[in-house]
Specification:
Elements (H helix, E strand, L loop, with lengths): L2 H7 L13 H12 L8 H12 L13 H13 L9 E4 L7 E4 L4 E3 L5 E3 L21 E3 H4 L14 E5 L5 E5 L4 E3 L3
Antiparallel strand pairs: 1-2, 3-4, 5-8, 6-7
Length: 186
C-alpha cells in the first residue's frame, strides 16, 4: 500500500477538516513531548506538578489531602476528648466499641510511667497455688500467709503454725507461726 494510502486509512493524512489528526501534527507533538526537557526533572518540578495536577483537597465526598485547617480542626477535636486524657495511675482499657477509656487502677495497685506495676501484698486475686513464682527480683518482705495456701497439708507443723517451705512433691519442710515476716535474702 502506498504511503499516501496508509495516511488516509489510519487518519495520518491531512484530514484535519474531517476531524483527523494530521501526520505532521502528530509527529510534531510526539517529538515535542519526547524532547520537552534535556535535563532530568528536579524535585521542585515534581512537587509543582503534583501540587498542580494530583493533589486534591479532601472533603466529605472526595478522597484527598488534609489542609492545615483540617489538621488544626482534627487536633482540636482530639484534644477535646475528655475520655482520652490519662491521669496518674490510669490505663487505657478497650472494648469492642473502639473507644478506649482511661480507667483507674484498683486502690491496691499502681502503675508507674515506666510501666512498672506495684500491688499491695494482699492485692493478688486469683492466685494459683503451685504456679511458678520468681522471687529473684522481689523487694521487701514476703508475707507467708499470702503464699503458702495450698502448699502441703501442714501435717508436719505444730498447732498454730503453717507450712512455710515445701519440697518438690509438696511435703512440708519447715513451718512458721504466720506472724513472722521473712526478710528478702540478699
Amino acid at each position: 500500500m502506498p504511503v499516501g494510502d496508509w495516511n488516509v486509512a489510519y487518519g495520518w493524512g491531512n484530514h484535519s477538516v474531517a476531524g483527523y489528526y494530521a501526520a505532521a501534527d502528530f509527529n510534531a507533538d510526539f517529538d515535542t513531548r519526547l524532547n520537552a526537557s534535556t535535563t532530568r526533572p528536579t524535585s521542585a518540578d515534581v512537587t509543582a506538578d503534583i501540587a498542580t495536577h494530583l493533589a486534591v483537597t479532601a472533603d466529605t465526598n472526595t478522597t484527598g489531602h488534609l489542609t492545615d485547617t483540617d489538621w488544626d480542626t482534627f487536633n482540636e477535636k482530639w484534644d477535646a476528648l475528655t475520655d482520652m486524657v490519662l491521669t496518674d495511675n490510669y490505663i487505657y482499657v478497650g472494648d469492642a466499641s473502639n473507644d478506649p477509656m482511661g480507667m483507674a487502677m484498683s486502690n491496691d495497685c499502681t502503675i508507674a510511667s515506666n510501666g512498672a506495676i506495684t500491688c499491695d501484698h494482699d492485692a493478688l486475686d486469683n492466685f494459683v497455688a503451685n504456679e511458678h513464682l520468681n522471687w529473684t527480683a522481689s523487694v521487701g518482705t514476703i508475707h507467708t500467709d499470702n503464699y503458702i495456701e495450698g502448699h502441703g497439708n501442714g501435717a508436719n507443723c505444730a498447732a498454730g503454725s503453717y507450712p512455710l517451705g515445701v519440697n518438690a512433691s509438696g511435703a512440708v519442710e519447715s513451718c512458721t507461726d504466720a506472724t513472722t515476716e521473712i526478710a528478702r535474702a540478699t
